[in-house]
Amino acid sequence: xxxxxxxxxxxxxxxxxxxxxxxxxxxxLTIPDPQNPQIAFPTQHPFHQHINHFQVFDxxxxxxxxxxxxxxxxxxxxxxxxxxxxITTVYTKPHSFTGRAMIHCHIIIHADEGMMAMxxxxxxxxxxxxxxxxxxxxPSCREWRGCKAK
Length: 150
Fold this sequence. Notes:
By secondary structure, the protein is mostly beta strands.
């Protein structure tokens, strides 16, 4: 339910190392038709997260054949396409870096226009990638290669 902050230096969310966070991502933005400005079209946005990957849990069409969406529940990514007016749910667990980490639309002109924000990650930094990070996300995701249950 949060929007990207107007102040680019303000963190969108404070996170702690080792804690799992569910992110529910959506976009209600539209682009006006150049021929008829009263008509606007919903737009898709590739959501990209720096530093930590996330595990895809729910995505529009995720239960359709793999070739349709390119995603399966439980896949690890750092970028996911956000379908307009639909909710994409991913889980992330900051694991070793503290400080600010950027999130943004991977369409660079959108990021330049303000579709970017920061997470503020706190905790005790480590130099090693924890062994359990691959199984952390949703309780139904117990294996590196995906989730057993829907």
